[in-house]
Amino acid sequence: WDREHKRDRPIAAGRLSARLAGSLAMAFLLGGLAIATLHGSAAAGYGGALVGCVVLYNLRHKRSPLAVIYMAGCRALLYPLAAAVVLSGAAGAEPAFPVWPASAAVGVYTLLLTLAARREDRAGARVSALLAWLVPFPFLAAAMAYPADRLLWTLFAGAAFFAWCAVSGRHAVRGQIREAVLGWLSGFCLADAFLLCLVGRLELAPIAVIAWLATAASHRFISGT
Q1: Please, what is the end-to-end C-alpha distance for the chain in angstroms?
Q2: Which positions ≥6 away from 221 have C-beta within 8 Å?
Q3: Is this model's pTM higher than 0.85 or not?
């Protein structure tokens, strides 16, 4: 598909061999799964499910519209995997805050932006206003699950995230789907900053903001979609 439609991509352009790309992909997948396995059965289970979603998405995303579910799984499984790794040394320990509302929010956010991204290569395609404005909505639902102790900072982080998504949504409605998707992708970092403020980890939120700045800047040179 890339050789026919996206000749500028590294493998299609011949800058990277398919064999080397496949070998690196396999090494990273198996290496990540091995690290997860070292942290107990829960981490191994989430790691295995994550690897499965990655492989299934790559196999099916040009063949089936349902592949967006696998992409959502790729993002949603990161939070429970991280929690399982952190808690692996404490038998019977539970996370200090519920992981699943955040996991569900990032999963639905991913599903919605992936639905929009599937239209990127269609000439004259636009994204409906309803879909564009729904993309960040899952994080409003997730916010209900967390008591915000530092309300002012939480509101500020939330406003930044939703404002960024609104700009991306305007691009999508105007038919600038690539720009919209790039904005939503870097928006993952602002969503994390919002979630970190919600659970009272303000000291970690600046790291997510720096990641957002780095991602948005890198999109000027490396396309994320």
Answers
A1: 15
A2: none
A3: yes
